[in-house]
Automatic annotation (TrEMBL):
Name of the gene encoding the protein in the UniProt record: ypcH
Protein name, entry field: Sugar ABC transporter permease
GO biological process: transmembrane transport
Alphabetical UniProt keywords: Cell membrane, Membrane, Transmembrane, Transmembrane helix, Transport
Family: Belongs to the binding-protein-dependent transport system permease family.
Bilayer-spanning residue ranges: 20-45, 78-105, 117-137, 149-170, 196-217, 273-290
Subcellular location field: Cell membrane
UniProt xrefs under Gene3D superfamilies: MetI-like
InterPro entries for this protein: MetI-like, MetI-like_sf
Species for this entry: Pullulanibacillus pueri
Transcription is among the record's keywords: no
Membrane topology (UniProt): Multi-pass membrane protein
Any single GO CC term annotated in Swiss-Prot or TrEMBL for this entry: plasma membrane
Positions of the ABC transmembrane type-1 domain: 82-284
Length: 305
């Protein structure tokens, strides 16, 4: 066998070994990301007595559904809050993606006269925030949106970061020649955007949709500021209130014998973990549907000129 063939065999052998090593490393990294959530699920099904005696364990001595049973007793409030959260997430994501994509498309076009001004304007709003007090005054006094569902949607209806991502995505993936051809054929700007640009920008749209949906799903601060009605409380804020009530009752259980007896039946740790599972599982299940577009959209849209 010649030296050239020997070197090729060695290179192929080394390539296979390196692939195996990298696959193992990626698998370990993936497992390290999934394991904490699996551990939380296990704890949520562990009995309170087992947690007090043996602590956290992968294989608990005693299993229990009391954490979920306690939350099931509040199913009326939880279902109402879940409906509000789903409504806000869906409508808010649609509004956010619409505003973001149209803004980014405008500043990505070289024939738009004020594209530099609006690009700098978006960057300034991303770097400098007006603060909580001016935002509160605008929402409550100027727009009169306090204690309405729009107070949960409009504060996050436009994302400067997503605008910059989509702007770069449009400039790098949508050839100017295609847009010029559409204009020559007599297509309007709106028709060009909806029929030609958007189908080419599906990876970018999916990326910013995931960012927006995640932001709306996890938001509780706007509810703390603007929502007083129990019928408009989102899921994350309701779970935080349940957690605060459990902590308060735990700290003040000695004030009343009846309260103390009631606290003995509340699985505090399991309930905390059950709330984490309830708030995390739905949005985690949505990731596989976006995964097809997420990586390409994020990498292409994140490249700077």
């Amino acid at each position: 066998m010649s030296k050239k063939k020997i070197s090729q065999v060695r290179v192929q052998s080394f390539g296979k070994k390196s692939d195996i090593i990298f696959n193992i490393l990626v698998a370990l990294l993936a497992f390290s990301c999934i394991f904490p959530f699996i551990f939380v699920i296990i704890i949520s099904f562990t009995s309170e007595q087992s947690l007090l005696v043996h602590g956290y364990a992968l294989f608990p001595k005693e299993w229990s559904l009391k954490g979920y049973t306690y939350l099931a007793d509040l199913k009326g409030q939880i279902l109402q809050s879940l409906f509000i959260t789903v409504f806000v997430t869906v409508i808010g994501t649609l509004i956010n993606v619409t505003f973001t994509s149209t803004y980014a498309y405008a500043i990505a076009r070289p024939n738009f006269k004020y594209r530099r001004f609006f690009t700098i304007f978006a960057l300034i709003t991303m770097l400098f925030s007006p603060g909580m007090v001016p935002s509160y005054i605008v929402m409550t006094t100027l727009l009169h949106l306090k204690d309405t569902v729009w107070a949960l949607i409009l504060p996050m209806a436009l994302s400067p970061f997503n605008i910059i991502v989509m702007r770069t995505f449009f400039k790098r993936t949508v050839p100017e020649s295609i847009i010029e051809s559409a204009r020559i054929d007599g297509a309007s700007e709106f028709r060009t955007f909806t029929k030609i640009v958007l189908p080419l920008a599906v990876p970018g749209i999916a990326t910013i949709s995931l960012f927006a949906a995640l932001g709306y799903w996890n938001d509780w601060f706007n509810a703390l500021l603007y929502i007083q009605s129990d019928n408009l409380v989102p899921l994350q804020f309701l779970l935080m209130k349940i957690q605060s009530n459990i902590d308060y009752m735990t700290q003040n259980a000695s004030l009343s014998a009846n309260l103390s007896g009631g606290m003995a039946s509340i699985p505090k740790e399991a309930t905390r973990m059950a709330m984490v599972v309830i708030s995390t599982l739905p949005i985690a299940c949505s990731y596989p549907f976006f995964q097809r577009y997420f990586v390409s959209g994020l990498t292409i849209g994140g490249v700077k000129e």
